[in-house]
Design goal:
By secondary structure, the chain is an alpha/beta fold. The protein folds into three domains: 189 residues, ABC transporter type 1, transmembrane domain (ABC transporter transmembrane region fold); 113 residues; 209 residues, P-loop containing nucleotide triphosphate hydrolases (Rossmann fold, 3-Layer(aba) Sandwich). The protein has 23 helices and ten strands. Helix 4 runs antiparallel to helix 5 and helix 9 packs antiparallel against helix 11. The longest helix has 53 residues.
């Protein structure tokens, strides 16, 4: 026997008491339901029309058994040809009208669902764009993608599918019960007696089927994670360099084999499940025919009535069973809303004050006032661990270790030289137009210091001022417009060179773009490419060399024309010839701007007005090159071990 009346097919029956308890504890509160309904409010008139259509289509669908009753009891026994023709026309017209109305309902339903997806995704993406850098360094990209896609669709499903299905089933059950009760209350009670057997089978066999379904999804997620790790450009390169092609093929065969085996088990158990459910349904229908047949023989029932009654009973079982699982279905969809709301409700760590200043002009004076900074490892204002009921989180991709056995640990927060504070009690002033070089061992805090200037992080203690204004009192747009930064790891979009350059200034003209590229010594190289500035650079700019990517990044920041420049190892990937050409360009670009340069190259440091030597988050030395050499401190040691070798090579 087939079930009608929605609810998502056989998966609706796959739940157990344990699952129900988990869903019950998932936070399905009145406040959550009210918040969910706020996303449906803009579409309330469409939903009202859709509900009206549901009433019409459900009512029309229930006319068919009545037509069969009239056909059997009146038209055929009485030889009424006209009545027979009319009833036959009705059997054709009802599904035709229902189908036409169903197309309209589907259009309205999809417009509501897609509208909700749009609203949620825009709200999520807008909020994520305003989150701090700490949030992204502590959050998996895959988890964000999952919430932007899977959870948003799950939330949309609650409005456009789950709620609609529940309402449809309620209307169907109410109408059918009303009709069959008017036919005979005894047969109605008899037909409903098999309902406990449905629930018992769903809880026992359905629970096992759900576990198999979850297991298959876990294996599938592990297989997808492996594909994601090995089929991106960096992973593919690593596999080839270490000659692990055969190993990875074998590993993939093993994981895809587990998906296959779980799928076979699920299919077999699903077939058993359907057979048992169908058997119980047949028993209920047979009982009705048996008792009803006796009523027909005794003259209390007509043949048409018993046929119509059995038909209604068949239509009743599916929606009635689905309604017993409706709270679980809605709670499952509500979990997706919770995941979405969790992100939207996260406070902004780098927030702009309502009365923040937009500076008309920026001179470029930067001052640190007793600044201390510590990376926050508390987990506050981060996403909680995801506990989806369909699948577990994926552990290590290759080792296969189980996080439940203590092998899975959170990603470590970046630490500098194993100390608590990345920066400690920094106080200094950089004058407008001054070039300051930051020098020190790896992990000393140089990059962290530069991240505080464009307010990617806020100091834990102390303050930073720009032209006398605390950065926390300045509009973020002002900082973004006046501070240009070339990071140590150059990032380019998978797009054309021109598009990547225009990211700095959207209205830049072609001559301005070319001037910036000439200043960065990359124009001639670009013009030699077959597509010139329309050349696609590949994922993360992988088609270009490290030096070419850095020069494009330099051209991009030159095109931006900021008042303050921050260069983090901006010439580290250049060969000596390219660096010599760029040094001349940088000398012109840096002139008149406040510039902070992190460099390990002697040529860059020699041009600095001042050198800050940083060790363990503190400025331990300050001065010019020759002055610092005579002090015999850390800078002199760095010079002897690193810079002096460079001078000898040159």
């Amino acid at each position: 026997m087939m079930f009608h009346g929605g609810g998502g097919g056989w998966m609706n029956y796959i739940w157990s008491e344990e699952d129900a308890e988990k869903k019950k504890n998932a936070g399905l509160s009145r406040a959550l339901i009210q918040r969910v309904l706020t996303y449906a409010r803009p579409y309330r008139w469409r939903i009202a029309v859709m509900l009206l259509i549901i009433l019409v289509t459900t009512g029309l669908g229930l006319l068919t058994p009545l037509i069969f009753r009239d056909l059997i009891d009146n038209a055929l026994p009485n030889g009424d040809v006209a009545r027979l023709n009319l009833l036959a026309f009705g059997l054709i017209a009802i599904p035709l009208v229902n189908g036409t109305i169903g197309v309209v309902q589907r259009r309205i339903n999809s417009s509501v669902g897609e509208g909700v997806i749009y609203d949620l995704r825009v709200a999520l993406y807008s909020h994520l764009q305003r989150m701090s850098l700490r949030f992204f360094t502590n959050t998996k990209t895959g988890e964000l993608m999952s919430r932007l896609n899977g959870d948003v669709i799950g939330a949309q499903n609650a409005i456009s599918n789950t709620i609609v299905t529940i309402i449809t089933n309620i209307v169907t059950v109410a109408l059918i019960l009303g009709i069959i009760l008017t036919m005979d209350w005894r047969l109605t009670v008899l037909g409903l007696m098999v309902l406990p057997f449905f629930i018992m089978i769903a809880r026992r066999l359905g629970g096992r089927l759900r576990l198999l379904s979850r297991e298959q999804m876990v294996y599938d997620a592990q297989m997808n994670a492996m594909m994601n790790e090995t089929l991106n450009i960096s992973g593919a390169l690593l596999v080839k360099l270490f000659g692990r092609t055969t190993n990875e093929i074998n590993r993939f065969q093993d994981r895809s084999g587990k998906v296959r085996d779980a799928g076979v088990k699920r299919a077999v158990l699903g077939a058993q499940f359907f057979r048992l459910i169908g058997l119980v349904s047949v028993v209920g229908t047979a009982l009705v025919y048996w008792v009803g047949g006796h009523l027909v023989l005794s003259g209390e029932f007509t043949i048409g009535t018993i046929v119509a009654f059995a038909s209604y009973l068949t239509q009743l079982y599916g929606p009635l069973q689905a309604l017993t699982n409706a709270p679980v279905d809605f709670a499952n969809s509500a979990v997706s809303f919770e995941r979405v709301f969790e992100i939207i409700d996260l406070p902004l760590e780098i927030a702009e004050k309502p009365n923040a200043h937009k500076l008309a002009t920026v001179r470029g004076e930067i001052a640190f006032h007793d600044v201390t900074f510590q990376y926050d490892s508390s987990g506050k204002n981060l996403l909680s661990t995801v506990n989806r009921y369909e699948m577990d989180d994926v552990g290590p991709v290759f080792s296969g270790q189980d996080k439940k056995h203590g092998n899975h640990t959170p990603a470590p927060v970046a630490r500098s030289q194993a100390r608590d504070h990345a920066l400690q009690n920094l106080s200094f002033t950089i004058q407008p137009g001054e070039l300051v070089a930051l020098v020190g061992p790896s992990g000393a805090g140089k990059t962290t210091l530069t991240y505080l200037i464009p307010r990617l992080y806020d100091p834990t203690q102390g303050s930073i001022t720009l032209d006398g204004h605390d950065l926390r009192d300045v509009k973020l747009d002002t900082l973004a417009e006046n501070i240009g930064m070339v990071t140590q790891e150059t990032y380019l979009f998978h797009d054309t060179i021109k598009t990547n350059l225009l990211y700095a200034r959207l209205n830049a003209t072609q001559p301005e773009i070319e001037a910036a590229c000439k200043a960065a010594n990359i124009h001639d190289f670009i013009m030699e490419l077959p597509q010139g500035y329309d050349t696609v650079v590949g994922e993360r700019g992988y088609r270009l060399s490290g030096g070419e990517k850095q020069r494009i990044a330099l051209a991009r920041v030159i095109l931006k024309n900021p008042r303050i420049l921050v260069l983090d190892e901006a010439t580290s990937s250049l060969d000596s010839q390219s660096e010599a050409l760029i040094q001349d360009a940088l000398a012109k670009v840096l002139q008149g701007r406040t510039s902070i340069v992190i460099a390990h190259r002697l040529s860059t440091i020699m041009a600095a007005d001042r050198i800050f030597v940083i060790d363990r988050g503190e400025i331990v030395e300050e001065g010019k090159h020759h002055t610092l050499l005579t002090q015999g401190g850390l800078y002199a040691n760095l010079y002897e071990t690193q810079f002096n070798r460079e001078r000898e090579v040159m």
